[in-house]
Amino acid sequence: MSADPTLPPAAARPGVLVEFVRTERANSAYALLVLAAAFLAGAVYYATQATKAGAAPETPAVDPLNPDAPPPPPPEVDNPKKGDYWFGCIGLGVGCLIAAGAGTTLLARVPPTGVAEQRSWTRGFVLVVGGLLGLTGFLLGMALLLKWNEGVVAAVQAYDTGGTATARAGARWLVMLVIGMIIAIGVVFLAIQPARAEERNNQTLRRLVYGGNLVLTTLLLFGSLLVLNVVFALKVPNMLDTTDSGFYTLSDATKKTVGSLAEPVTAYVILPDDNSREINDVRTLMYSAQEIGGGKFTPKFVSPVTDKAELQKLQEKFTKLDKTGVGVLLAVGEDGKRHEFIPATDLFKSDFQPGGAQKASFVGEAMLVQKLRFLSDADARPVVYFTQGNGELALAADAGAGFSKAEREASQLKTHLESYSLDVKPLELGTGAKAAVPADAKLVVVADPMTPLSDAAAKALKDFMGRPGPDGKKTGLVVLAEARPGAKDRKMAKTGLEGLLTEFNVRLGEQFVYSVPIPQYQIGPREATVLFAGGRDGGHPIVAPFARTAALIWNVPREVAPLSAAPGGPFTVTPLMVTLPQRPTWLEDEQLDSPNQALQDMVENDALRARKRLTGSPRTVAVAVAEGGAPPNPMNPHGGGGEQTPRAVVFANSEMFSNAAQRPRGGGTPATHELMSASLDWLRGKPPIAPGTEKVYQTFELPPGETLNSTRLYLLPIGLALLSIAGLGAGVWVIRRK
């Protein structure tokens, strides 16, 4: 069957749009001018909105000390959406120029004489006008996305996590913007199609088609990269920490705290907008927290220099915001009634080292976790009671006390715990029938009683451990039980808590632990070397952050061990601290005046060594007690595990928690005070805040010039350059051979 000779070839058949523009030039011109007028109206509207001031501030109050003085001028209030309006105004203005120019061209230009020439000209006209309009729309969308870069990921996450109303509104605007960009790409694609009919026999149209294809491919590439970046931003970490110390890596406690926020938190970072390392570290911390926050943590950066109007609004709304300082403001929910402020001075710490050197550290991560935990407790600080009245560590410091007195005071520990948003209070249980633990108590610390607690006090603690706390969860107990002789003999003194601890599967040792001396280090038999259990690989969550902490020296301790090691009981006892395995220890029923003589007596007496249990195996001196499933067994991945409820922590030492605790070189918080806060965090069901969240600033220095390999320094770049040239030449030769 032959084709109809009256019809043009299928490739050259004009489309409806081409024929309409060719035959209805005037109407097409008027339509374009109407479109230009609409664009112009939109541009004028957006320009008006951009130049409109923000909400008027309140009228300044009259100065009561000088009522005749004129009131101070109101602060300038900027329009937060001014940039968006200007982008819209510019985009619509460009569109107006394109549409108006196209309409004027149709009215003023004389069309070609022949039908084929008219169709060719119309195809080129449609391609140019449609391509420019589509390109303008896409570039406008890209500009807005770049301006909204901080909220794009949060807006996308809002659909998955719920998010705030602001985030959901941002998500809707984002969807509309993406749809508009897709329409713009579609306009470019459709504008190219009519010209493809003549790309083989019309050089001008062929160039326009190829140019349009290039523009379309570029737009599609940018769109694909945009989608991929958003997807990867949600699924892949935005930053890689390449520092040797892991300076920018968040701790597990931070990840769990930020990742489990029940309500959305907005972090207003009120810091100067400069590029100093300290400011960049705060900014990096906020972005890292946003990444793991699941849409519940949103940082907003407010410059005290350029955003004065926004800062004034924050100062009027949030009562805890320092009127003159800078820092980080954390606000819960959209109303922000629960909020906390971290001054910038609390984000950094500076300690003086021996010799006058200064050690600077970044502690912003620990402060952020502390404040978020406080806000998550609904503005009610957990109450921790320290028992008093039986010679325990005193919470109040005696200003005139010496070192020996400092061993029996815990005022510095109290200050440290209060910095963790804990409410530390004294508790005198007494001996009468009215002995009881207050109802607001979440945790109780029995800090090394010098005299045994009464039966009534022990019963009050037992009742406390058997009831839920103010938060509806089970309560927790910390016991510090130093080894000391009794008042009437030299045997181990009682604490009054032996029976209660037995119910939790814990045995307080009744013998003194002495250690073989180490003369080269001037360490005697009364000084025990104590390590954190688990080694450098970490162990229990309480001591895992301290895995790389140096060994501690304790005065003669006692054993603290599980009463029954058999699995399957209601309570699981896990060692926290043990004596040094390589240093043998032995047990004595009474405190010794001459432990060296006792060691000498055991040298050639096997029976005496066996009776006193001289061994090189580690002895447990601190434990954690959990109720429920046993800890996972690394030798049996399918056994153990299960949900556990923290119940108690027992240490055979109290001095390390007192004012006499050893401080780090150059000052700072003792690691053992951090150990107490980690224990209380664990009992509260919170991941302990590791001391490693204190990031020490280090200065990198290049090695001396004489240590560098100058030969490799010169020859390696030259060799790489020659190899690249040879590879390029080989590639050219292969291509030309083909």
Automatic annotation (TrEMBL):
Domain DUF7088: 246-321
Domain ABC-type uncharacterised transport system positions: 381-664
Stretch list, region Disordered: 57-80
Transmembrane segments: 29-48, 85-108, 120-146, 173-192, 213-234, 713-735
Highest taxon of source: Bacteria
Compositionally biased region (Pro residues): 67-77
InterPro entries to which the protein is assigned, alphabetical: ABC_transp_unknown, DUF7088
Keywords: Membrane, Transmembrane, Transmembrane helix
Annotated protein name in UniProt: ABC-type uncharacterized transport system
Organism: Urbifossiella limnaea
